[in-house]
Amino acid sequence: MSDPRDAALLTELGPAFLERLRAWMAAGRAGEGPVLARRDPLALGERWPGRFDERVAAGETGPRALALLEAALDAATHLHHRRYVGHQVATPLPLAALFELVGALLNNGMAVYEMGQLQTVCERGVVRWMADELGLGPAAGGLFTSGGSLGNLTALLAARQARTGSWGGGSNGARLALLVSEESHYSVARAAQVMGWGKGGVVRVPTDAAHRMDVAQLPARLAAARKQRREVVCVVASACSTATGAFDPLEPIADFCAEHGLWLHVDGAHGATHALSRRHRDVLRGVERADSVVWDAHKLMQMPALSTAVLFREERHALESFAQEARYLFEDDTLQWDGGRRTVECTKRGMALTLYAALHAHGAGPFRDYLDTVVDLAHAFADELEAAPDFELCTRPETNIVCFRHVPRGVAAGELDALQAELRRRVVDSGAYYLVQTRRREGLFLRTTLMNSATTLDDLRGLLEALRGAAREL
After folding, report:
1. 312: closest CA among 163, 137, 187?
2. What phi, psi does 120 have (nearest 5°)?
């Protein structure tokens, strides 16, 4: 029997693991193998059941671990494959994966400073850099948390506290509300309900033809909420929407918030990385006036999930969100350093250390280059779609998300939705490409998110040919 705590396992199994992962990543970037090989869940469950031996012989540990690694790769959606154009999930950098290993082995949580000293300092450093890139000003600060959903909740808790003081015993929130685009991420509405605002606490603002918040509708929606005796405390702007990649017009929204004394929260989970670009950051014009911004590093910053920054124009709001006493854990003299004061999590992993390491070792330039590469590719793909008579572009892309549909001659308008769904199924089942779909008011569209810098315009032309071929087979 081997000792599971033996540090020698790192050198016995580590090289084989790293070489296999290197080859798998390289094969995907070269376009080899399927993007997804569908596996029946029942068959997988039979091969890997929830039954375990009481003891394992010393010679079996390595082979068992390597077999499970192969199974994981075989069943994986290959995000590093150049023809993966599906969800908004990063292709993580190799160095990021290595520092995830460091973080997992150290296992230093960040509730209190002394349990995660370097992790805390690196988090504050990355937060300062991100706030500067957004132009939030010298008083800005923030924190990292586990994903955009928790990030939006954290920011909205701060908005509630800043406008009502309800965390400390003020309004119970039952009549509070926020204004949000009808294209907003579902986590915004979920956060409002978690805070007890109810469905009526989310006031939807219509979008324009480009799927952006229609700013002209804000006064009427605010008046309607007040007529229902709702106290609106916040406007949530999308930068960008998940469905189409549309950026709400932040400057006029900020003007509206300033006029009415409302908190402005920008859900920049996907699009905040545009701040790094010299050529594509105009979509964020006005973000520097936001009271809070959510920015996912596990999207366009090429970090493993989950890794989300919640940034405040005034750092004091990061502490006000969770103003609680826990004397067994927090000491007053370390207030500004204890991460547990700022987040839902207590034992939070050091996610910012991974991003700090990548920025420290590679510099910021490669991150800017990556953003430009994938956005430029989206624009070029949109040009191809507009030039093709048998494809229809949903809207011109502002980021690396492109929505379109196949409209072959002779197909009735009422049949287009079913056609897109069937084409997607056939192409994904073939393993040649992985793409998703989204329902818009105009109908069902195919949706691509260009996350892999190895993806080329020829790959995307091949996708169009694959869709045409699937349509001819119907």
Report:
1. 137
2. -65, -45
Per-residue CA distances from 61 to 16, 58, 80, 431 (Å): 13, 6, 28, 32
Q: For strands 292-296 and 308-312, give the pairing.
A: antiparallel
pLDDT in tens, 20-57: 999 999 999 999 999 999 999 999 999 999 999 999 99
- pTM value? 0.95
Angle of helix 351-362 versus helix 117-134 axis, rounded to 10: 70
Could you say which DSSP state residue 357 is in? H
Q: Tell me the CA distances in angstroms from 62 to 44, 50, 55, 73, 201, one per residue in order.
A: 21, 20, 14, 17, 54
Strand partners, 406: 391
List the chain residues with pLDDT less than 70: 1, 166-174, 321, 323-335
Determine the Cα angle at 168 with ends 165 and 170, to 5°: 55
Task: Give me the numbers of helices (H) and strands (E) for the chain, helices first please.
Answer: 14, 11
- In angstroms, rounded to a whole number, what is the distance separating the alpha carbons of residues 443 and 357? 43
**Per-residue tokens: 438:** 């989204």
Say what the pLDDT of residue 12 is: 93
Q: How many residues does the chain have?
A: 474
CA distances from 104 to 143, 236, 255, 348, 349 (A): 20, 34, 44, 12, 8
Q: Which two tokens stand for residue 163?
A: 């406008």
Q: Which sign, positive or negative, has the C-alpha torsion 451, 457, 462, 465?
A: positive
Cα(177)–Cα(203) distance, integer angstroms: 7
- Phi first, then psi, for residue 385 (nearest 5°) are -65, -40
List of residues 6+ apart from 7 with CB closer than 8 A: none
How far is residue 143's CA from residue 161's CA, in Å, rounded to a whole number? Answer: 17
Q: Maximum Cα–Cα distance for the chain, whole Å? A: 73
CB of 148 within 8 A of CB of 185?
yes
pLDDT, position 335:
54
- C-alpha pair distances (Å), 416 with each of 189, 396, 409, 427: 31, 20, 11, 16
Asked whether 36 and 80 are in contact (CB, 8 A), the reply is no
Give the HSE-up count for residue 250: Cα atoms under 13 Å, Cβ half-sphere. 26
**Pairwise CA distance, residues 399 & 413, whole Å:** 28
Alpha-carbon distance values, 308 to 69, 277, 295, 352, 427 (Å):
28, 19, 6, 9, 32
Q: Which two tokens stand for residue 276?
A: 């790094």
DSSP state of 276: G
With residues binned 3-state (H G I as helix, E B as strand, rest as coil), the percentages for the chain, rounded to 5, are: 50, 15, 40
